[in-house]
Amino acid sequence: MNRPWNRVPVAVLGSTGLVGQQFVRMLEDHPYFELVALAASSRSAGKSYAEAASWLAGGEVPSGARRLTVIEGARPAVLGAGARVVFSALPRAAAEPLEAELRSAGCFVFSNAASHRLDPDVPLLVAEVNASHLDLARSQVARHGGAIVTNSNCSTSGLALALGPLRPLGLAAATVTTFQAISGAGRRGLASLEILGNVIPFIRDEEPKMLRETQKILGRVDDGRVRPSGLEVEATCCRVPVRDGHLLSLRLELETQVTADEVREAYEAFRGLPQEMGLPSAPARPVLVRLEDDRPQPALDSLMGSPWRARGMAVTVGRIRASGRTLRLVALVHNTIRGAAGSCLLNAELAYRQGLFGPMQPDTLGLPLAQ
Amino acid sequence: MNRPWNRVPVAVLGSTGLVGQQFVRMLEDHPYFELVALAASSRSAGKSYAEAASWLAGGEVPSGARRLTVIEGARPAVLGAGARVVFSALPRAAAEPLEAELRSAGCFVFSNAASHRLDPDVPLLVAEVNASHLDLARSQVARHGGAIVTNSNCSTSGLALALGPLRPLGLAAATVTTFQAISGAGRRGLASLEILGNVIPFIRDEEPKMLRETQKILGRVDDGRVRPSGLEVEATCCRVPVRDGHLLSLRLELETQVTADEVREAYEAFRGLPQEMGLPSAPARPVLVRLEDDRPQPALDSLMGSPWRARGMAVTVGRIRASGRTLRLVALVHNTIRGAAGSCLLNAELAYRQGLFGPMQPDTLGLPLAQ
Amino acid sequence: MNRPWNRVPVAVLGSTGLVGQQFVRMLEDHPYFELVALAASSRSAGKSYAEAASWLAGGEVPSGARRLTVIEGARPAVLGAGARVVFSALPRAAAEPLEAELRSAGCFVFSNAASHRLDPDVPLLVAEVNASHLDLARSQVARHGGAIVTNSNCSTSGLALALGPLRPLGLAAATVTTFQAISGAGRRGLASLEILGNVIPFIRDEEPKMLRETQKILGRVDDGRVRPSGLEVEATCCRVPVRDGHLLSLRLELETQVTADEVREAYEAFRGLPQEMGLPSAPARPVLVRLEDDRPQPALDSLMGSPWRARGMAVTVGRIRASGRTLRLVALVHNTIRGAAGSCLLNAELAYRQGLFGPMQPDTLGLPLAQ
Amino acid sequence: MNRPWNRVPVAVLGSTGLVGQQFVRMLEDHPYFELVALAASSRSAGKSYAEAASWLAGGEVPSGARRLTVIEGARPAVLGAGARVVFSALPRAAAEPLEAELRSAGCFVFSNAASHRLDPDVPLLVAEVNASHLDLARSQVARHGGAIVTNSNCSTSGLALALGPLRPLGLAAATVTTFQAISGAGRRGLASLEILGNVIPFIRDEEPKMLRETQKILGRVDDGRVRPSGLEVEATCCRVPVRDGHLLSLRLELETQVTADEVREAYEAFRGLPQEMGLPSAPARPVLVRLEDDRPQPALDSLMGSPWRARGMAVTVGRIRASGRTLRLVALVHNTIRGAAGSCLLNAELAYRQGLFGPMQPDTLGLPLAQ
C-alpha cells in the first residue's frame, strides 16, 4: 500500500450503512486521515465496497473507497490493516463490546453508536460546544491504551448546537418537538407504508436520549468525570416523510430577558474551537441564522454551510421569537452529517490536532489544514 | 322543487372548494337540513355541481348535489333558492361583507371564514366546549334579523377539544407545535415543490389565530360579550407532506398536579351538549384516547369516530405524559372535517335544536335525530 | 358458537397482513360466509385479532373479527374451527405445501398466493373474464377431495379486466408500463428511503407473472386443462410513492381497427357472470370509464365502484386513444382489493353460487344476494 | 464593470424560475460566458437577485449573480447591459415575440421556450445528436442579424439522447410512458394536493411535443430546412411525486435484430461533438448504462455524470431488454438540467466554439476549455 506516512490510517466499521457511507464520503482526500479498511457484516464481506454499499450518499462512490474490499469483523479490519483510528457506525448492540475491545487494543474509536455515550470517562462531544470534555479521553488512554470518543444522537446534535451559543443567557428549561427525517432510522428502519403521507409521533428511545445526552454535553468536567447540567429537556420526537434533515421546534426558558436580536447576534457571533483551529470538517459558522418567516426547511437548508466538505455541518436556526425570558425558535440539523458521521469526524480532527494520538509530527503540522 | 316542508333549506357558499365539498358530503340525507343551493365563483357558475367541483371529498358526488347547478354569487344562491341557513366556505375577504349582508337579510350564516370570528357578538363555537356562547347569536337576531355563527380555525379546533376536557384541572399555559396537512391550505394553496419531502415551519396568520381564537372559545359570556380566557397559547405552526389531519404536539401547564391516568379518564369521560342531544354529526365521543406509544397518526386516525356521518369528527389524543403540573400529549384533528365543515355543521345542528331559527315544529321534533 | 347453519364457515390465513385485513374487512356481515377463524404467524398467535393486526384497512377492526383470537398454523385454524372454505393471504413459500394439504383435507382454498396459479388443474380466475375456468376446480375435487382456486397477481388483475372486454376486437399484443403502489409490496416490503420521492423501475418476478398469468386467464379450457392464449405481454413494472392503486399505461395491438368510442362502449357494456348473478362483492360495472383528460388517478379513483362492499372492485380506465389497430389507454386497479382479497372473495362467491362446495341448500338460496 | 474582454457577455431571461436558476448556477465562473444581466417579471424587478430568486437550485446563490439587480423586461436587460447572448427561460407566450425581437436586434438567443422550436429555420438542438442542425442558425443571421437556437422539451431531451446512439440500428417506432418530476411543471405549476401520493396520467401538450420535437431532432437538414424523421413516437406522459428527474419507459422497434449487449455497447461507445470538443458543460459520456436490475432511479441517478458543472447532463439508461427487433429500456434525464438549462447552455457552447457569434478571437481560443 503506497501511503504517505504522515496521514493517520483509519478504518470505518459499519461502512455500508447510511452513516458509514457519510464517513466514507467525508474521508475522501482527507488531510489528516487515510482510509485503509472498511468493515461490514458477513453479507458484504469480500465484496468490493462499491458493490457492497448500494451507495446513497450522493454522487459516486469515492475512488479511494471504491478500490477497497469489505472486511468482515472489526478486529481483522482494524488491526489487520494497521488502522489506529476507527470510525464506528455500528449498531448499538454490536458496538458495545467491540469498541471496548478495540480501545484495549490501543485504538482511538470515534463512535456514532449510543453504547458508550453515557460512560463516565467517555467524552460525548459536540466539538463547538464542549471541546474541553476531550480531556476525558486522556485518562482512558492511561487506563486502556486507547480511547472511545462519542458524538451525540442525531437530534441531540442539533439541540446542543442551538443551545450552546445561548449558555451565557442562562438555560433554565427546554421543550422540543422534533420533525425527524426517515434516514435517521437507517436504511431499512422505516417501512414506506408507515410514513408515506404520515407523521409518527414517537421514536423509540429518542426522548430520553435527548435529555441525558444534552445534560452530559452541557455539563462540566470535574475531577475526571462529567457533572451533567441540570437542564430539563422535554422532548416529543416525531418522524416525518422527509429524506434528510431533522427540524426542531424549540421553546426555551432562560434566566435572563432577551430580545430576538440578541439571540440572533449570539448565534452569528458564535465560534468554537473547530473554527478557531480551522479543522477540515468545521463549518465556517456553526450556526446559520435565517431571517425569512418560513425557514429553515429541510429540503432547502439541510446541506447549508460551505465549503464542500463541511456541507451539512452547520445547524440552521430561524423563527426566533423572544418574549421576556421565553425564547422560541426552529433549528435544523442534517442528521447523517452533523447529526452523525460529520460530528464524529470533527471530533477526531479535534483530537488529532490536540495530540491525543501522540505528539504531532513536524510534517503533519505542515499540511494545509483547511480544504 | 319537491321538498318535505319540515327540513330547513340550506345553501353552501364556496361549495366547490375542499371545505365546500365536505359540507356537501355531510349534508347528504341530513335529517335537519336540505341542500337547495350551491354557490361558487363565476368560473363554476352555470355548470352542474358534479362538473364544477372536481370532487375530492371521497367516493362520488352525492346524488342530491349532483343534480344542482352552481350559482354565481351568494345573494342569488341563498335568497333565490329560499335558503334560510347558509354554510359559508368563502375566503376571508369575500366572506366579510357577504356574510353580514346575508345576516341582515335574515339568514343564519354558519361560517368557516375567519372574518367575523372575533366580532364581539359573534359566537366562535366548538360545540362540545362552549355551547353556551350560542346565546350571542340571539342578540344578533334582535339587531340584524339573522345571525352569524363561526367555528374556529382548523388547528384551533383540535386544540380546543384537547383543552376543553381539562378545564377542571386549571389551564395555566399551552405551548403547541403543529404538523399541519396540506389540505389545510386549500386546493391550490401549496405548490408541490414547496412541500414534497419537506417541512415548512410557518403558516401565515395561524399562530395568532390559535392564540386569540382559543382565548375566545375558552372565555365566558358576560353581559352579552365574550370575556376571553387569559390562557397563553404559544404556537409554532408547521406544514408537513400529509394530505389530511393536523397533528398537535402539546405541552400544558396546569394549576393542579395530575397523572396520565387522570388525564386519560378526563378525556374518556368527556361528553358535550352535542352528545347529550344526539346531534346527527356529533361523534359518539368527542375525544378518543390511544394508548399505543406511536399514535395518533394522521394516516390511521384522522377519520376515526364512527358512525359514518361523524367520521373525522372526533379528536384523537395519545402520548399522554404527566409530570407534576406539566402535561404533554399529542392530538390529531381532521382539518377539513372537525377543523372546518364538520364543526360548522355541528354548530348549525345545535342551533337548530336550540330553536335559534324559530320555534321547532312538531313534526320536526319527531324526526329521528341520530343517524 | 352461535352460528346460522346456512352460512359457510370460513378461515383467513395470513390474516394480519395487508391482504389478510382486506379479507377480514370484506367478510364482515357477508351473506354467504361466516368468519370463524383467523390464522397468522407465531408472533400474533394467542393475541386478539384487534391487538395482533395493527389495522390498516380503514375504519376500525370489524366487530366480528375483533372477538376472535389469532391461531398459529393453518391446519389448527381451519380444521379446528370447522372452516370449509379458506382464504389464503400466505406468502408464496408457506402457501405451496399448506394449501395442497388443506385441499387434501377437503377444504376449498381461495388463494391470493402465487404458488399454485400456474398448476394445470388450478383455475386462475378473474371472475368477470374467465368464470368458465372454475370447471377445473371440479376435477380437483374428484382427485383431492377439495380444491384450490387462485386469483391473479395484483397488476395482472387490472390488466385482465382491461383486456377482457376487448377480446371481441382480437387481442394481438400488449405492452404495459405499470405504476405500482407501495402496499403491493406488503406491510414492510419496501423501505421508506427506497421510495420516498423516487421511482423504482423494477419489481422482482412481476413481469413474467404478468405474461404467464394473463395468458392463462385469457386461455380456454380444453380437455380439463387451460390452453394459454398466445398473447404477448411485454411489461415494465415500476414502483411509485403511492399508497394504494396500481396504474397501468397500456398499448394494445388489435386484430381490427377501432375507434376510441367503440372501445369506450365495449367497456361500458361489459358485464360478467358476477354482475348477472348479483354476487355480493361484484361491482355494478367491472370497468368504469373516465372521460376527463387526466383520469384515472390512484388518489381519486382507486376505490371507485359502489356500493360499499364493492368499493375498489371496479377497474377504472381512461385516456382511450385509438389509431388504426393500435389502442392506448390507462387503467387503474386497487391492488389489495380487486388485485388481491376482493378478487379472491368474488371467486369464492362465484364458486358458492355454482355449487362447488356441494348442492346449495334451499334456505341459502333464499338469502338476499346483493348487499 | 470590470470584465475580461474576451468572455461573451450574456443575459438570462426568466431568471428567477427553476430553469432560470439552473442557468445562473451553471454560468458561475463559465469559461466562455459572463453573466451580466438578469431579467424577470415586474414582481422581482429592482430587487437583488438573491432576494428575488428564492433560490432552489442547490447550495447558495452564486456570488456573481448575488450582486446583480433584477431588471424588468428583456430588451432593457439584454441591450442595456450589452449582452450579446441571451438565455431564455421565458414562458411560451412571452417568449414568442420577445425572442424574435432580440434576434432582430442582433442577439443570439438560446431558448428553452417552446415558441420557436418548430420554426423551419430554427435549430432544435440536442448537441450530441444533431449538432449539424446548428447550420440553420447561420441563415437566420443572414436574414435577421441574430439567431434563435432552441433545445427540446424536457422529456424529449431524454428520449433523443436514448434514441440517438441507436440510429445505426434503424429506428422504426417508439412507444414511451413517462414518469415526470414535479419540477417540470415549474415552481407553482402543480398543487401539492394534486400529486402527493398520486400519479396524474396526463401532462398538457407534452405528448404531441414528444412526437414533433423528436421527429425534428432526428431529421436531417436539406436545403436549409429540417426534413423530419418519420419515426412514430407514441407517448403517454404522467406526473409522479418526484422532485427532479424524468424517467422514461421505452419500447422501440428497430429495423435490425439486436441483443442487449449490442445496445449497451452502442450506448457506452457513443460520443458526440460536445465530447470531442470538450465543451465545458458536456458530460464525459452522454449516456451512462446501469446494469443493476432496478436502476436508474430518479433519487439516485438524476445528477450522475461528473464533473461538477456537468452533473445532471448525462442520461442514464438501464433495464435493457432486447428480443428480436424489439428493444425495451428505461431512461432517466434530469429535467431542469439536461432537459432544460443545461442543454441550452451546451448548445450555446457549441455555437461559440463553431464561431456562430463571429470569428473567435485568439485569446479566447487560449482559454482552458474543459473545466
Topology:
Four copies of one chain form a homotetramer.
Chain A: E1 8-13, H1 18-26, E2 33-40, H2 49-53, H3 63-66, E3 70-72, H4 74-80, E4 85-88, H5 92-104, E5 108-111, H6 127-130, H7 135-144, E6 147-150, H8 154-163, E7 171-180, H9 192-195, H10 206-217, E8 220-222, E9 225-227, E10 232-239, E11 246-254, H11 260-269, H12 273-277, E12 287-289, H13 298-301, E13 315-323, E14 326-333, H14 337-353, H15 362-365
Parallel strand pairs in A: 1-2, 1-4, 2-3, 4-5, 5-6, 7-10, 12-13
Antiparallel strand pairs in A: 7-11, 8-9, 11-14, 13-14
Helix pairs in contact in A: 1-14, 8-10, 8-14
List the defining traits of the structure above:
alpha/beta, 6-stranded parallel β-sheet, 371 residues, homotetramer, 22% strand, 6-stranded mixed β-sheet, globular
User: Which outline of chain A best applies?
Assistant: globular
The largest sheet of chain A has its strands arranged as 3-2-1-4-5-6
Tell me the span between the first and last alpha carbons of chain A: 24 Å
What's the mean pLDDT score of chain A? 93
Question: Number of helical runs of chain A?
Answer: 15
Name the chain pair with the biggest interface and residue counts per chain. Answer: A-B, 34 and 34 residues
Q: Which range best describes the helical content of chain A: under 10%, 10-25%, 25-40%, 40-55%, 55-70% or over 70%?
A: 25-40%
> Percent of residues of chain A in beta strands?
15-25%
